[in-house]
Amino acid sequence: MVSPNFKARFGALAVAVFSATPAFAQELLWDRPALLDGPGTVKQSLRDHGISVDTWLTQFYQGVVGGDGDREWQYGGKGDLIATFDGGKLGLWKGLYVNVHQEWLYGEDANNQGDGSIYPVNTAMAFPRLGGEEEDTSIVVTQAFGDRATISAGKFNVLDSAAKTPLMGGGGLDTFMNLGLAAPASGVTPPYIVGAIGTLKSDIASFTLMVYDPRNAQDWDVVSNPFSEGTTTSLSVTIPTKVAGLTGYYSARAVYSSLTGFNLDNVPQLILPPEQVGPAEGALLKDGYWYVSASVQQYLYQDPNNPQIGWGLFAEAAISDGNPNPFGWHFLGGLAGNSPIPGREADRWGIGYFYYGFSDDLIDGLAEAGFSLEDEQGFEAFYNYHITPWLRLTGDIQWVDTGRTDRDEAVLAAMRLQTRF
Predict the structure, then answer these.
(1) Which one of 2, 59, 153, 413 is least enclosed by Cβ atoms within 10 Å?
(2) Are residues 13 and 148 in the same domain?
(3) 299 and 207 share a domain?
(4) What are the strands, taking DSSP E only, across 264-408?
């Protein structure tokens, strides 16, 4: 909390500095939703004319503090610029929106610290870097039809969707950092997709239909030649409920892709000499794969005056065909939400557990070739302290029982500082 004396002194200074712009000075810096936002600012003027611009800088300092892995801490950061253009206010037509998300990475990250973890321990720094790039641009055009239906098309950053879930939320920038919790992996949805998404809200449920290219859209060929190798279709339904007067969201999702993948029964053929493999039991390639999941986010406490503030439990269970999808099944769960500490309701906290089971075909194939892989599980806890609405400091701790059998377990700690301009 900022002390009253500091507020008084800083307030007097702010009034003196910005006296030429009274509206600008009336709202003190620490009360703004963003550092450069407020009455009379350029951001407010742009927003009034239909252009909303958000710029974030998120810095990370993370390293292995126990178990296997290098002990050198890594510093890096991610810049995000999100611009939304409102067609109605810009003189086009009502319900049209264009969203542009530009992201940049710099510095190092702890995703390759030799600890043996298969899933990235820092989701925000993993993408788009794992695709071989330090920056990426996503552009989505949306047409809303009243309050109940939308159709969107373009190149999507999937982490943006993960960031909007009510309790887990954040997509690696605000809440959990490990991919196993921040953006649960499915093997059927790459981090960037090209396609279309339609949503429909009724009085009892919300439906989302996704049709997209199954390949990672960081590859320009996916953008310029979409659906040339198959199509993925995803249908999900979310049912909002009230349990003892508290809001909950219960969801189910089913996915099928026509993409041809490598038949995991034949993993040894990629590694061993042909004379040691023996006759193949199936074709080298396998057509299509499926995935289904069910999830819940249920508030256990909500502020009577503001239902958006509260905390509760979350859980997700999923299963796939396991071939050609290398992920067989997973389960995750935990508690998360706003801080219950009086006066600190803007803070976020969470504690979660995840378990990811890899495909049996993949594990057996690697074992036959002399390589060992096992399931991966872990715990993570974080506390996100809002110094001001635009300056947030997070402490994070993870324990990971890694998927590599030549590594045992690892404990990672991190500090994350996000500034919203």
Answers:
(1) 2
(2) no
(3) yes
(4) 285-303, 306-320, 327-338, 348-358, 376-388, 391-401
Containing domain of residue 27, as a range? 1-31
Nearest in space to 128 (alpha carbons), one of 189, 56, 190, 174: 190
DSSP class of residue 367? H
**CATH no. for residue 154?**
2.40.160.180
Question: Element (H or E) spanning 277, and its range?
Answer: helix 274-277
Q: What are residue 223's DSSP bridge partners?
A: none
- Answering whether pTM is above 0.90, one says no
> Burial code of 340-376, b = ≥16 C-beta within 10 A, e = fewer?
eeeeebebbbbebbbbbbbbebbbebbeeeeeebebb
| Contact present, 263 and 284 (Cβ < 8 Å) | yes
Tokens of 382: 């974080």
Domain total in the chain: 2
Instruction: Provide the pairing of β-strand 96-107 with 232-243.
Output: unpaired
Name the residue among 192, 189, 195, 193 with its Cα closest to residue 152. Answer: 195
Note whether 297 and 246 are within 8 A (CB): no
Segment (H or E) for 211: strand 206-212
Q: How far, in whole angstroms, is CA 350 from its chain's centroid?
A: 15
